[in-house]
Write a structure and sequence with these properties.
The protein has 558 residues and is an alpha/beta fold. It folds into 4 domains: 1-68 and 185-247, Rossmann fold (3-Layer(aba) Sandwich); 86-184, no CATH class; 260-313; 335-402 and 473-554, P-loop containing nucleotide triphosphate hydrolases (Rossmann fold). 39% of the residues lie in helices and 21% in strands. The protein has 17 helices and 18 strands. A 6-stranded mixed beta sheet has the order 5-6-7-3-8-9, sandwiched between helices. Strands 14-15-16-12-17-18 form a 6-stranded mixed beta sheet, sandwiched between helices. α7 links the parallel β6 and β7. α3 (96-109) runs antiparallel to α4 (120-135) and α12 packs parallel to α14.
Length: 558
């Protein structure tokens, strides 16, 4: 018998006049790993918070008696001025309820009046809480977190090192290690974008950890590959509602496509039937047959109209698609660039970023650069772009090669400008109406086009950077984490655009699904050495395991 842990019935959530969720109905059972997907702003994090905190406006959220919850939040609460050891010793939210209840009982215990009543059940509960806290690692948070850090490859730093000296990826690992302590005995864990800022190796470790975790999981994520590996259910947030689907992300995509096709066919068939019914009624009228038969036909038509209305209500509302068409200029030769015995080193770094590497890029190559955080993937892009110089060796870029660069931090943008002003600087030949139209195709509202970039979200800035790249002349694209901050619809649009791009592509990305869709080479950078693998990311993983590439009908990605 499957244990029901959470039941959500008829839940609404609004913020002021803005409705975010309506009539949400979900059941979460023990062992389910539920991925919550939807476009940016759909209400995914709101759903997670509403359920975990039971803060609905309307409806009911019921937890099974005695269940324990844990949280892995999108915002990792790292104290930068503390040491690694001090940070590891801080207890996460998973201990909050336990310690609050223990503290409340201890407050009763100091009152002599407490012992005048039936105090034994309270003391039994106190003992139970203490045992749960101990089994969860509450008395050894730092020790357990250190063990996780070792598995994440972050144990090479001294424990007294300050957190502010760590890289962004290392801080993410530290926060992850601390938040994963104490999950023994946890029934449900809520995860909000758990793979943000993690390298692929750490993400893969987290995937294994979560698959082995015995409790239920509710996971908000834009990482499609991660959802494929971890989840056995998908809930899509669309048009304020929650739509449940069985299986992982790939299965959800196939089911949704089949469902939409079936719905479209059902609407067409019903419209055909209605046309036939209408024709029959008209023929009866021409024949002056105003009897029971024509009355019956009218009733049939009314039912058909009602059924058609119900079917059309189920058709998903399509957002205005992101329009992206990348065109390469016709200047590049077959040979695009070549590294010869290339070496790159930084003062103070105990290893080389590149160590006498020989690498070639040809026209049409689509290269994905992978490797752990700090290995130098972005530095490799900067070397090609001329922002960094080799320590020794040479880099030859073919005449006619024109580079377009998408920075991870959108460094090509002037944050003091609005989107209209930014595009105007790039294309002074554009009229204001042309710029507005271009931004409109990139889903910008009339208010957003005149808002300073520094006030826009990461996803909005990413779309401006992509539009800028679109309007530039290039035949070699360098892209550093291009899918960061993009929702799934925008990622798919970018993937389709890159598939049609006739120039060359070199991209750094932690998005394994994206790499599966767009690259035909993998450069694995590790300890200064680049190893070349042919095929996409899945081919690369299989090659490392000594397995052949997947056949076409075995590929899970859609």
């Amino acid at each position: 018998m499957v244990r029901e842990l959470i039941r959500v019935e008829g839940v609404d959530r609004s913020f002021g006049p803005v409705d975010v969720l309506q009539d949400i109905n979900l059941i979460i059972n023990d062992g389910e790993r539920v991925g919550i997907v939807g476009h940016n702003g759909a209400g995914k994090t709101t759903l997670l918070n509403t359920i975990s905190e039971q803060q609905q406006d309307v409806g009911d959220i019921d937890f099974a008696p005695g269940i324990r919850l844990a949280y892995l939040t999108q915002i990792r609460d790292i104290e930068s001025d503390s040491s690694i050891e001090e940070e590891l010793g801080r207890k996460g939210r998973q201990f909050q309820e336990l310690e609050d209840e223990i503290a409340a009982i201890e407050a009763q215990m100091v009152d002599p009046a407490f012992y005048e009543g039936d105090w034994q059940p309270v003391m039994d509960r106190y003992s139970e809480l203490q045992q749960t806290l101990a089994s969860s690692g509450g008395g050894n948070v730092a020790g357990i977190a250190k063990g996780i850090l070792e598995k994440l490859g972050l144990d090479r730093h001294p424990m007294e090192m300050r957190v502010n000296q760590l890289s962004g990826g290392e801080k993410a690992k530290l926060a992850l290690a601390r938040q994963l302590v104490g999950l023994a005995g946890i029934d449900v864990i809520f995860l909000d974008e758990p793979t943000n800022h993690l390298d692929i190796q750490t993400t893969e470790w987290l995937e294994s950890f979560l698959v082995d975790f015995k409790g239920a999981q509710l996971i908000v994520s834009h990482d499609r590959y991660f959802l494929d590996q971890v989840c056995n259910r998908i809930v899509e947030i669309d048009n304020l509602r929650a739509w449940p689907w069985k299986g992982n992300y790939s299965q959800f995509i196939r089911q949704k496509a089949a469902s939409e096709q079936a719905l479209s066919e059902a609407i067409k068939n019903l419209e055909k039937k209605m046309s036939g019914t209408t024709s029959a009624i008209q023929q009866m009228k021409r024949a002056n047959k105003y009897d029971k038969s024509i009355s019956a036909k009218h009733k049939i038509l009314t039912r058909q109209q009602q059924e058609l209305k119900a079917l059309k209500a189920r058709v998903p509302k399509k957002r205005k698609p992101l329009v992206l068409n990348l065109e390469a200029i016709e200047k590049s030769s077959r040979d695009v660039l070549e590294f010869k015995k290339a070496t790159k080193a930084f003062d103070g770094l105990d290893r080389q970023i590149l160590s006498e590497q020989n690498l070639e890029v040809h026209k049409g190559d689509r290269i994905g650069i992978v490797g752990g955080n700090g290995q130098g993937k972005t530095t490799l892009l900067k070397l090609i772009n001329g922002d960094e110089k080799l320590t020794s060796g040479s880099l030859e870029v073919a005449p006619g090669c024109v580079i377009g660069y998408f920075h991870q931090d959108h460094a090509t943008l002037d944050f003091s400008l609005s989107p209209v002003e930014q595009i105007g600087v790039l294309r002074p030949d554009f009229e204001y109406g042309d710029i507005r139209a271009a931004l409109g195709r990139f889903q910008f509202s009339k208010e957003q086009v005149n808002t300073k970039l520094q006030q826009l979200s990461g996803g909005e800035r990413a779309r401006v950077a992509l539009l800028k790249l679109l309007l530039e002349d290039n035949n070699l694209l360098l892209m550093d984490e291009p899918t960061n901050h993009l929702d799934m619809d925008s990622k798919e649009t970018l993937e389709e655009a890159l598939k049609g791009y006739e120039g060359s592509l070199i991209t750094v990305s932690h998005d394994r699904w994206f790499l599966d869709q767009v690259v035909n080479r993998i450069w694995e950078l590790e300890n200064g050495v680049v190893t070349v693998y042919y095929g996409n990311y899945t081919d690369y993983i299989r090659a490392k395991k000594g397995l052949p590439p997947l056949a076409e009908d075995e590929i899970s990605g859609v």
